[in-house]
Recover the amino acids of this structure.
């Protein structure tokens, strides 16, 4: 083992002229890395590769994703390197103090820019740096921000220069992302290296999130003791949607979208299941300009009209405050040293990368003269490249860039090229140096700021000279070593005001709707998998005999027709070869996510619904959903026989996952209204499925032999065959089957059982009129219950048999009537639940009138 | 001094019921060095749940209203009485000062007025400076030309070179598009003028208001025949803001009533809103009356 182990380290070649985190330029491992390198030597490359694989598996199981910007459909798995970045205690103290100072400074700057603007009057900051930056929002000028801090959270991106000095590359104040990913990285890495992690005394991250909670509480408008706090997300398609949900569940707040909120009477309210609940604090992950289509970007569908007015009324705090993006302007770097002197009477502890602003003639002159040595950046992100390396430009590009800069000089800065430092990264079985950026996070606390002891380290994905902005998907955990053991108890038992419990009843109507559909799609998928399994079994059993045995052929044909009914797929042509499903049908069933009725569609919708309510579900849910997604992803790639897609193994794996979901729902979820909706969805779907099976199989006479096979198939597809055999010990017959599948309330698969459960669920929903009275959704269920209670198995079976002389085709049999009634009432119940609880906001439209001739522009969601 | 009573009615009729409506109005005239607003009110039907007036970033009167009563019609009426002295700034102090001088003074300005003026050289949502606008404006702004003469010339050229044609443009039409098409309304002409001035490095803003129209001699004034209006303003050191109306080739005087000003139309849209409805806006009617009132 030792023979291979040393190769990891001895093979490591730091990059020349680049600061390396792990080894000095003499090739000696730095003191604070020795525990980690010691562990690496023990592990060796093969074991490390295994751990790396385990990391990937855990991240996948937890459903950790990061969407690539501009490609909302792509869900990229989050990448975490096996090696953490190790930071020693003393150095961290310096970084921390620098980040705190910077936060305090930017907090004062931000407060001034939306207040007295002394900095401009005193000539400390040119007006173009403020008013020429899109982050400055005139709509919130002069609006007081409640709470002790103006800037509540800040992220500061740090790099090492060639000498190992720490410099600030950028500040993120709009709605800084990454803290949640840092937490997730820690969860995974500490699980994969438990003993190393424990032995090293690494600072814990949890206290930071507690501080964040406290900061959000403190940000609430005056007089609000138990603020209702929500996290506003652009939705599951956002690039950092995973983090929004993680924060919501970690902090215990509702995850909402713009459509869940409404402004009325100068307040913002959350549409919960049965009422409007006032919202006091919004932690926003929507960029400020998109937060209010009335006063800010009119084309935004992500915001809440009237939100800005609620802030002005003083009833709502938004964190970070709208307009905070202005302090992200990199041109500020050029002015921060003198601002620190003027506002804090201090020198800047953490220098920014040397920056010149082209809005000043000296700056423009320098940029023009030294373009080759500099990195050029527009002051605002969005559109175009975030940075341009002057030295890489051709002569033509160079003059084009200079022309652009001189047309709008205040929009550009030139920054000194930094030879960004590198950190060992495990790539392709060996350690290689990769350049890295450390994002640190600060949150306001008691008149100052507190910094997450750690952060999100992002590494370049290849030999890039810079770490691209979108390289967010390659990351490292950041281990800040504690100088002495941390006392966990001391942290939790910190004296002072105990934090109020967050008010209940904050589930949004949208979350409830998605849970309902989660239940429906999970059950729909399960029903379909079971049916497919039965179809496959029958095909195997009967294929050889099918042509010879008419009963066998009829059975298969009928089952295929049932499959057609359940999936809504045309069955044309299926009859020709009753032992075969057409290949393209199988492929569509298993791989076509866009066609309703296919298994792929059901599973995809299940996944989508789950993502919307990610914060409501246990973490284990993602292990299950990831497994389902894997099956789904493989289906279109599968070559060879389409039949293999329906292999017993694959269907079994899918079924196992679906059953695991059921288990989680039954054993790991609190019985709150959200669970009730999910369960109601499941019950409705299961009852409808049984009714559909019976309608296609039980209404016609196929002859005793075929019927018996068919009934057995339906019983199997309904997971009731074992009970049936034990109870009746006979060939499957209609009356007994109907008894078990329709009327027997003790059979958890029967329609009667679903109706019982559904009734309990509906009675537990908010807004129920109370014991003894039925809600609107309950009424059709009651009808269905009554119809079932009045039914008589013998008569149902009798009328459906050919011997029953009454059956002439025109008059429906009693069974057919019953099944029709059940289907209709169940559908009515579903519709009523939706109408009563799931608020569907009418489409949002903007209206403006032109200046002189009353010309009108109207838009709905299109960019104007 | 002239006193005016201004009535500005806007009526929407919607195809489907509107569940909620949020509005932001810049319809009540502000005070300016050349006018005093004696009274002003905004009436909204149906009655809003919330009406709030505030002073916006530019010192204008902005009104927010919202209502949640389902409705198919919304009427917004602004009524005001404004006394206009129409005092144009005293331009003599500028005498023959070349425009480049003004540009450089503004660029280096550090007092409160010039710090404010500097921000009006920057781009705004609807007006982006460009080489093309600069070149178009440079015909008036020849090197060394006195600034007042140059800006009056620019105003006249816009009036002569373009055709006033309602409906030819919409709120998103850019100054460049106007140069291409040659037709537009007052808002487009104001934007073009603002864009040319900014492209030359001069501070310019957009002014929204009304213009008294006079019927031909002997004919009665037709009710509702007036419209809201827009023009441009340039900041001149010492003198202050100097308003010119490129639509009518006028230096703004006592026939112009100012409502609000900003960087461009987007800052001072007379009335804009967000509604929640399944349908569209079926009909929009705007009526403006500007009539002389007794000076109180």
């Amino acid at each position: 083992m030792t023979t291979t182990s040393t190769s990891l380290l001895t093979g490591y070649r730091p990059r020349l002229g680049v600061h390396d985190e792990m080894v000095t330029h003499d090739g000696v491992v730095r003191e604070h890395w020795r525990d980690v390198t010691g562990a690496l030597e023990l592990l060796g490359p093969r074991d490390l590769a295994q751990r790396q694989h385990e990391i990937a598996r855990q991240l996948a199981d937890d459903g950790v994703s990061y969407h690539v910007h501009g490609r909302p459909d792509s869900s990229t798995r989050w990448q975490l390197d096996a090696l953490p970045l190790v930071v020693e205690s003393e150095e961290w103290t310096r970084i921390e103090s620098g980040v705190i100072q910077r936060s305090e400074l930017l907090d004062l700057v931000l407060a001034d820019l939306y207040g007295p603007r002394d900095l401009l009057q005193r000539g400390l900051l040119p007006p173009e740096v403020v008013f020429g930056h899109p982050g400055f929002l005139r709509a919130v000028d002069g609006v007081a921000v409640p709470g002790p801090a103006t800037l509540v959270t800040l992220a500061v991106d740090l790099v090492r220069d060639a000498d190992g000095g720490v410099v600030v590359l950028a500040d993120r104040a709009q709605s800084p992302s990454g803290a949640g990913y840092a937490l997730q990285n820690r969860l995974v890495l500490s699980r994969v290296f438990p003993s190393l992690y424990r032995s090293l005394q690494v600072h814990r991250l949890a206290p930071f999130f507690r501080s964040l909670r406290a900061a959000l509480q403190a940000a609430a408008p005056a007089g609000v003791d138990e603020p209702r706090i929500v996290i506003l997300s652009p939705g599951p398609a956002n690039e950092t949607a995973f983090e929004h949900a993680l924060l919501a569940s970690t902090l215990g707040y509702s995850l909402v979208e713009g459509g869940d909120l409404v402004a009325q009477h100068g307040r913002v309210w959350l549409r919960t299941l049965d009422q409007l609940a006032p919202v006091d604090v919004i932690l926003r992950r929507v960029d400020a300009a998109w937060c209010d289509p009335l006063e800010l970007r009119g084309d935004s569908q992500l915001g809440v009209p009237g939100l800005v007015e609620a802030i002005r009324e003083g009833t709502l705090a938004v964190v970070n405050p709208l307009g905070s993006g202005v302090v992200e302007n990199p041109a500020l770097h050029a002015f921060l040293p003198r601002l620190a002197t003027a506002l804090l009477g201090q020198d800047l502890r953490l220098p920014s990368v040397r920056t010149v602003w082209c809005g000043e003639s000296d700056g423009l002159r320098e940029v023009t003269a030294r373009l080759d040595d500099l990195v050029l950046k527009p002051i605002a992100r969005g559109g175009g490249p975030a940075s341009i390396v002057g030295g890489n430009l051709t002569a033509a590009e160079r003059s084009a860039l200079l022309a652009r800069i001189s047309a709008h000089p205040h929009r550009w800065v030139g920054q000194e090229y930094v030879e960004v430092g590198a950190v060992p990264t495990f790539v392709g079985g060996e350690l290689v140096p990769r350049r890295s950026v450390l994002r640190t996070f600060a949150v306001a606390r008691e008149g100052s700021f507190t910094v997450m002891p750690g952060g999100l380290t992002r590494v370049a994905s290849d030999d890039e000279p810079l770490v691209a902005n979108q390289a967010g998907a390659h990351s490292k955990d950041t281990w800040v070593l504690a100088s002495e053991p941390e006392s966990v108890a001391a942290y939790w038992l910190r004296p002072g005001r105990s934090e109020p419990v967050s008010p209940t009843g904050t589930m949004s109507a949208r979350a409830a709707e998605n849970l309902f559909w989660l239940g429906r799609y999970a059950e729909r998928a399960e029903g379909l998998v079971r049916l497919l399994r039965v179809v496959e079994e029958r095909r195997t059993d009967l294929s050889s005999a099918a042509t010879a045995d008419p009963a066998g052929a009829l059975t298969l044909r009928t089952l295929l027709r049932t499959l057609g009914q359940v999936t809504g797929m045309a069955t044309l042509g299926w009859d020709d070869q009753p032992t075969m499903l057409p290949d393209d049908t199988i492929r569509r069933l298993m791989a076509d996510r866009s066609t309703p009725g296919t298994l792929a569609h059901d599973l995809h919708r299940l996944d989508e619904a789950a993502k919307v309510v990610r914060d409501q579900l246990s973490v284990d849910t993602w292990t299950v959903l990831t497994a389902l997604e894997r099956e789904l992803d493989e289906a279109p790639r599968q070559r060879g026989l389409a039949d293999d897609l329906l292999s017993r193994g694959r269907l079994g794996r899918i079924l196992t996952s679906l059953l695991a979901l059921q288990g989680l729902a039954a054993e790991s979820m609190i019985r709150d209204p959200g669970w009730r909706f999910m369960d109601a969805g499941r019950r409705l779907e299961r009852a409808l499925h049984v009714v559909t099976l019976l309608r296609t199989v039980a209404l016609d006479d196929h002859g005793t032999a075929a019927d018996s096979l068919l009934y057995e198939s339906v019983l199997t597809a309904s997971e009731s065959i074992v009970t049936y055999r034990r109870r009746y010990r006979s060939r499957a017959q209609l009356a007994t089957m109907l008894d078990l599948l329709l009327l027997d309330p003790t059979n958890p698969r029967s329609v009667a059982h679903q109706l019982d459960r559904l009734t309990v669920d509906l009675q537990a929903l908010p807004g129920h009129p109370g014991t003894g009275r039925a809600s609107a959704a309950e009424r059709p269920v009651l009808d269905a219950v009554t119809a079932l209670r009045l039914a008589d198995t013998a008569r149902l079976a009798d009328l459906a048999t050919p011997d029953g002389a009454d059956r002439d085709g025109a008059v429906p049999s009693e069974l057919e009537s019953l099944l029709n009634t059940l289907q209709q009432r169940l559908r009515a119940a579903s519709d009523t639940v939706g109408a009563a609880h799931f608020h569907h906001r009418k489409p949002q439209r903007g209206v403006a009138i032109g200046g002189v001739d009353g010309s009108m522009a109207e838009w709905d969601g299109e960019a104007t | 001094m002239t006193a005016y009573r201004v009535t500005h009615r806007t009526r929407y009729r919607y195809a489907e019921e509107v569940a909620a409506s949020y509005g932001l109005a810049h319809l009540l005239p502000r005070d300016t060095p050349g006018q005093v607003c004696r009274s002003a009110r905004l009436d909204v039907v149906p009655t809003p749940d919330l009406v709030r007036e505030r002073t916006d970033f530019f010192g204008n009167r902005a009104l927010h209203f919202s209502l949640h009563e389902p409705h198919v019609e919304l009427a917004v009426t602004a009524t005001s009485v404004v006394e206009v002295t129409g005092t144009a700034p005293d331009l003599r102090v500028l005498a023959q000062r070349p425009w480049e001088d003004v540009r450089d003074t503004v660029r280096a300005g550090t007092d409160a007025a010039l710090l404010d003026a500097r921000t009006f050289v920057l781009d705004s949502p609807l007006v982006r400076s460009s080489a093309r606008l600069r070149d178009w404006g440079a015909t008036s702004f020849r090197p060394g030309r006195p600034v007042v003469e140059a800006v009056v010339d620019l105003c006249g050229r816009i009036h002569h070179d373009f055709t006033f044609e309602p409906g030819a443009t919409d709120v998103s039409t850019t100054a460049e598009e106007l140069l291409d098409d040659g037709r537009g309304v007052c808002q487009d002409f104001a934007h073009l003028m603002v864009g040319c001035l900014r492209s030359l490095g001069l501070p310019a803003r957009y002014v929204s208001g009304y213009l008294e129209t006079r019927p031909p001699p002997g004919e009665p004034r037709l009710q509702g025949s007036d419209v809201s209006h827009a023009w441009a303003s340039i900041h001149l050191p010492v003198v202050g803001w100097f308003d010119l109306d490129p639509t009518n080739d006028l230096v703004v005087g006592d026939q112009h009533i100012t409502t609000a000003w900003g960087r461009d139309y987007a800052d001072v849209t007379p009335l804009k809103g967000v509604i929640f409805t399944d349908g569209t806006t079926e009909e929009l009617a705007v009526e403006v009356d500007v009539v002389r009132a007794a000076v109180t």
Chain A touches chain B through 48 residues (CB under 8 Å).
